[in-house]
């Protein structure tokens, strides 16, 4: 198992668009409606500080990636539902940023690309596991009503 002192999690919550409305609202939306609405975005229990603590406690550096000195980044996309639960959890932009092992020097470019894909999937799998275990968030509110909101949560896996 990986010691938590090796893991650095860089987290930024980015809102993709103002809100991800319910499917019915999206289907019935008018293209020319450009009004400014009162929006309160969802919040992890304890805010950003609570989210950082949760990730530091829960996120585990993939053992194989640590063994081979692989660093990477994955952007987890989530939708915070109107009741605060999470849905549509998916990994986007899974990338290997660095491989610090000399063992990969003699591999062909094709083999190196396959290994990068494998390690990117390990980071994505861990990101998914952590997001799936998250407690309910405070839901988003738009014009006094709870709405679905889409977030991107970038996670960077870096060895110290």
Structural summary, described in words:
Residues 1-36 have low confidence and may be disordered. This protein has four helices and seven strands; from the N terminus they run βαβααββαβββ. 29% of the residues lie in helices and 28% in strands. With 160 residues, the protein is α+β, with helices and mostly antiparallel strands. A hairpin with a 2-residue loop joins β5 (140-142) and β6. The chain has one domain (36-157): Fusion Protein Consisting Of Minor Coat Protein, Glycine Rich Linker, Tola, And A His Tag, Chain: A, Domain 2. The strands form two sheets. It has a four-stranded antiparallel β-sheet with strand order 1-7-3-4. A three-stranded antiparallel β-sheet has the order 2-5-6, with no helix packed on it.
Question: Which terms summarize this structure?
Answer:
160 residues, alpha+beta, Fusion Protein Consisting Of Minor Coat Protein, Glycine Rich Linker, Tola, And A His Tag, Chain: A, Domain 2, 4-stranded antiparallel beta sheet, 3-stranded antiparallel beta sheet, 7 strands, 28% strand
Derived from helix and strand composition plus strand pairing, the structural class reads alpha+beta
Instruction: Please give the CATH class.
Output: Alpha Beta
Count of discrete domains: 1
The percent range for strand residues is 25-35%
Report the CATH architecture: 2-Layer Sandwich
Strand order of the largest sheet: 1-7-3-4
The CATH topology: Fusion Protein Consisting Of Minor Coat Protein, Glycine Rich Linker, Tola, And A His Tag, Chain: A, Domain 2
Q: How widely separated are the two ends? A: 16 Å
Rg from alpha-carbon coordinates: 18 Å
Give the overall pLDDT as a whole number.
79
Helix content: 25-40%
| Poorly predicted segments | 1-36
Q: What is the helix tally?
A: 4
Biggest sheet layout: 4 strands, antiparallel
Q: Would you list the SSEs in sequence order as H and E?
A: EHEHHEEHEEE
Shape: elongated
Q: Tally of extended strands?
A: 7
């Amino acid at each position: 198992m990986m010691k938590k002192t090796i893991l650095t999690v860089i987290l930024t919550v980015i809102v993709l668009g103002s809100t991800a409305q319910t499917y019915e609202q999206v289907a019935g939306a008018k293209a020319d409606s450009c009004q400014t609405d009162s929006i309160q975005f969802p919040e992890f229990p304890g805010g950003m500080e609570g989210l950082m603590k949760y990730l530091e406690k829960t996120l585990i550096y993939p053992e194989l990636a640590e063994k081979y000195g692989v660093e990477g980044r994955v952007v987890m996309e989530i939708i915070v539902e109107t009741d605060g639960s999470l849905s549509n959890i998916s990994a986007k932009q899974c990338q290997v940023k660095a491989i610090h092992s000399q063992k990969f020097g003699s591999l062909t470019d094709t083999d190196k690309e396959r290994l990068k894909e494998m390690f990117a999937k390990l980071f994505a799998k861990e990101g998914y596991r952590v997001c799936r275990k998250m407690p309910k968030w405070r839901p988003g509110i738009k014009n006094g009503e709870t709405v679905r909101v889409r977030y991107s949560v970038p996670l960077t896996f870096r060895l110290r």
